[in-house]
Write a structure and sequence with these properties.
Blueprint lengths: L2 E4 L1 H7 L5 H16 L6 E9 L13 E10 L5 E12 L4 H29 L10 H4 L5 E9 L2 E9 L6 E2 L8 H38 L17 H8 L6 H4 L1 H5 L1 H13 L6 H10 L2 H4 L16 E4 L8 E4 L17 H4 L3 H6 L5 H6 L71 E4 L6 E4 L1 H10 L3 H6 L1 H18 L11 H9 L2 H14 L3 H10 L29 H18 L2 H5 L6 H20 L1
Parallel strand pairs: 1-2
Antiparallel strand pairs: 2-3, 3-4, 4-6, 5-6, 7-9, 8-11, 9-10
Helix pairs in contact: 3-5, 5-17, 9-10, 9-19, 9-20, 15-19, 19-21, 21-23
């Protein structure tokens, strides 16, 4: 009998009638096994429960998240366990999240599979030792299943992915990432971008080859009609293959359509701190060019020149976009219960075994007279030892000769059970300050085609604290460039063809700093409750300030209480540091003259020296 438990919330969200839940789960497992070329003998157990959210349920989060645990028997009768998560969005509850999950389904279902095939195609011509495993480059949860249903004017999207939390992946502590977590996240997106550049090169070559073949097959009788019989190449071919990569404005619609509201909220936040009033003028100066910085004035019909660093990018990155893996499983040795001898030992002949058997001394004396034809002939005269003295006693014959090469090797026993290593497994909760080994990218809602340095700039202002921007920014950019270079070299791509040096790469990054700052502000304000901001304005005690209006939530949203990040003192300091850092950079000569950017601590130092000189002039 199959045990199936489905929570009531899942039935309501999926609008399942009684008895349909088991059928949906069975079809899900069959779909998974069919595409993995596996077979199932019997489904043993299935449970669907609401999943506890590890992060704040943001504006773009799924309406509901469930975890499903399955146990089935394969053809050999062995129990196999599967642990997945189910993301569900409904357009009548959260339209923004519904659009983004539809985009994420296409990324995991189509784009990631293409990236994996590109890596396999590149590595096919390498030797075994030089081949690159796609799991080391594309650290994302495995795609399982997706579906879209329509009922009247309500759309429901469902996406099933592998549950990485069951594989010892954890979210970071709330707030910005520290140095070790940030560096791990930078390496993850750098490997993802390297896979994107590899995929881009293969696609471009394929498009050019198809275009050449189509041009060569033309005859004088062919009539050329504009817009027809044309093989798309370059970005046109990429967008024809993956149309969702050109939907950057659609995926960021919530941030872009409410940009003036969010920027007003941030400006009111700055006004709540009179000692930071010098930042308001700089912010208003940046705000005047918001549309140009965000690229909203670019025409879609305008064909831009493809840059070597243009590739598939993540778009919008946050700290909650990553899950971190901290330590390897130290109990792997204890999982092996029986160790048998090798087949080479089993294949040894009986004759060799008999020749290696020990012989008793009495048997040797009794068989002295027996002549063995297989034995070598004995010498007719005794062996003369020239080094031995005449009066010395003859050396005693050793009963056994030892081979020093194998003197510490124990004899193997037939079918011996070797006891496993007794390793002590660490108990207790995970240390939040421990250093992660790798990071998995779990957010693909904003994947688009743009400059890869764009992601790094966004990451500094959404996930990094002021310490990273002031003292380790260039070090992280170096880590990003180094990881991309090494990964591309392992994939057999010549990076010299990009014609980029370190200075050009840094300048390419600094062109996206203002974009990263604005996206960081928009994301931060989208996750801020307007009521808490109005309470902060009220506590500032400034006369004549009116409450701020912000986007409201629907009453059907069950996650209203968990929708925003609390406006604590640490959160307020983080938001103020965004403006302090960008203001010191904008007021510097490097920004004015277009010189290569450096760590923001240098700009703070120069700014403080400039303020000190102005104070001395006023005193004089």
């Amino acid at each position: 009998m199959v045990y199936v438990y489905v929570c009531k919330r899942f039935k309501v969200t999926m609008e399942m009638v009684s008895g349909k839940d088991s059928e949906w789960i069975l079809n899900l497992v069959k779909f998974y096994l069919k595409h993995r070329r596996k077979e199932m003998q019997k489904l043993e157990r299935a449970e669907v429960n609401p999943k506890r959210r590890v992060n704040t349920c943001s504006y773009d989060s799924s309406s509901d998240v469930f975890k499903i645990n399955l146990v089935y028997k394969d053809q050999k009768g062995v129990d196999q366990e599967l642990k997945w998560i189910i993301k569900v969005t409904r357009s009548d509850v959260n339209e923004t999240a519904n659009v983004l999950l539809r985009h994420e389904k296409q990324v995991f279902g189509r784009l990631v599979a293409d990236l994996i095939n590109s890596i396999k195609q590149k590595s096919a011509s390498f030797t075994d030792g030089a081949r690159v495993n796609f799991r080391d480059l594309i650290l994302v949860p495995e795609y399982i299943y997706d579906e879209t249903t329509h009922a009247a004017d309500v759309t429901r999207n469902v996406l099933v992915l592998d549950n990485l939390e069951e594989r010892q992946y954890f979210s970071s502590t709330p707030g910005p990432l520290n140095l070790s977590h940030f560096k791990c996240a930078v390496k993850t997106i750098a490997k993802f971008h390297a896979a994107g550049l590899c995929h881009k090169q293969l696609l471009w070559n394929s498009f050019a080859q198809q275009s050449t073949q189509a041009q060569a097959s033309k005859s004088f009788e062919d009539v050329e009609v504009e817009g027809e019989n044309k093989v798309p190449v370059g970005k046109e071919g990429l967008f024809a293959r993956f149309p969702f990569l050109s939907e950057r404005i659609l995926t960021m619609n919530h941030l872009i359509s409410n940009r003036q509201t969010f920027l007003t909220m941030y400006e009111e936040l700055l006004k709540s701190f009179p000692q930071e009033s010098y930042l308001i003028d700089i912010f208003q100066y940046i705000r005047m060019s918001t549309d140009d910085i965000l690229g909203l004035n670019e025409k879609e019909d305008e064909i831009s020149v493809d840059h070597p660093l243009d590739s598939i990018a993540v778009g919008v990155l946050e700290a909650r976009s990553f899950l971190f893996f901290y330590e390897e499983d130290e109990d792997k040795e204890n999982k092996t219960t029986k160790v048998q001898r090798s087949h080479s030992d089993r294949a040894s002949s009986r004759k060799v075994y008999e020749s290696q058997k020990s012989v008793n001394k009495s048997d040797t004396l009794n068989n002295n007279n027996v002549i063995n034809k297989d034995m070598p002939a004995k010498a007719k005269c005794p062996k003369i030892d020239s080094n031995a003295k005449s009066d010395s006693k003859p050396a005693s014959i050793k009963a056994k000769v030892q081979n020093k090469f194998f003197q510490h090797v124990k004899k193997a026993q037939d079918d011996a059970v070797v006891p496993p290593l007794q390793l002590k497994k660490k108990d207790g909760p995970r240390d939040p300050n421990s250093k992660p080994l790798r990071a998995a990218l779990v957010n693909a809602k904003y994947v688009t085609y743009t400059r890869i340095t764009n992601d790094l700039a966004v990451l500094f202002f959404t996930s990094g604290d002021s310490l990273l921007r002031r003292f380790y920014m260039i070090k992280m950019v170096e880590c990003f460039a180094e990881t991309i270079g090494i990964t591309l070299s392992n994939l057999g791509i010549d990076t010299d063809k990009f014609k980029l040096n370190w200075t050009k790469f840094v300048k390419e990054f600094q062109t996206h700093i203002l974009y990263g700052f604005l996206v960081g502000v928009l994301v931060a304000m989208a996750n801020t409750d307007v009521s808490e901001l109005n309470e902060l304005i009220k506590q500032s005690g400034q006369v004549g300030r009116e409450p701020v209006n912000g986007p409201t939530l629907r009453s059907e949203d069950s996650e209203t209480s968990n929708r925003f990040v609390k406006l604590t003192s640490e959160r307020t300091t983080f938001l103020l540091d965004l403006m302090r850092d960008i203001a010191s950079y904008v007021e510097s000569k490097d920004f004015e003259l277009g010189l290569p950017v450096t760590n923001f601590a240098r700009y703070h130092e120069l700014w403080s020296m400039q303020d000190g000189a102005e104070d001395e002039e006023e005193d004089d």
